[in-house]
Amino acid sequence: MKYIQQPDRPKGCIFCLALAQPDGPENLIVHRSARALVMLNRYPYNNGHLMVVPFDHQPSFELVDPATRAELMELMTQAMSVLRAVYHPDGFNVGANLGAVAGAGVAEHVHFHIVPRWGGDTNFMSAVGETRVLPEDLGATYARICAAWRLGF
Q1: Cα(130)–Cα(122) distance, rounded to whole angstroms?
Q2: Catalytic residue check, 111
Q3: In b/e form, how buried is each residue of 34-63, taking b as 16+ CB within 10 angstroms?
Q4: Digit-coded pLDDT (tens) for 51-105
Q5: In what side-by-side order are the strands of the sheet with 29-32?
Q6: Euclidean distance between CA atoms 74 and 43, whole angstroms
Q7: How far apart are CA 104 and CA 82, in angstroms?
Q8: CATH architecture under which domain 29-122+133-150 falls
Q9: 31, 49, 111, 113: the active-site residue
Q10: Number of Cβ within a 10 Å radius of residue 67
């Protein structure tokens, strides 16, 4: 809520703004490769919710070059390996929302979401109260995922 309510929050693409900064807890980037990055979602659905984002500011995968698309797939695979090592999820939701009508919060810069899932992680809080409860602080999540990525998961 703090970010959403900031009157002076930065204008522009959140991914391009993050790319322009050094990697760290401020921009939540856990890994950069030659053409793409992996970062935490600032408003996660579950602990460990990651996004895989190409450097190119494009609204759709068809507009991203084939080498970048291949790298995105490799980074998604690596991200799932890291999440398995750190959180031991029972499964994953992996996908992309292409366009605002499809639910994209950042429609102008295509990206994938990787959400770890556990049996029973949807409960009365999210189903009835329309509220997500995350037992881990985003800073702690960032530190755990960065450490595992550096160690080669």
Answers
A1: 11
A2: yes
A3: ebbbbbbbeebbbbbbbbbbbbeeebeeee
A4: 999 999 999 999 999 999 999 999 999 999 999 999 999 999 999 999 999 988 8
A5: 29-32, 36-40, 50-54, 112-117, 91-95
A6: 24
A7: 25
A8: 2-Layer Sandwich (3.30)
A9: 111
A10: 10
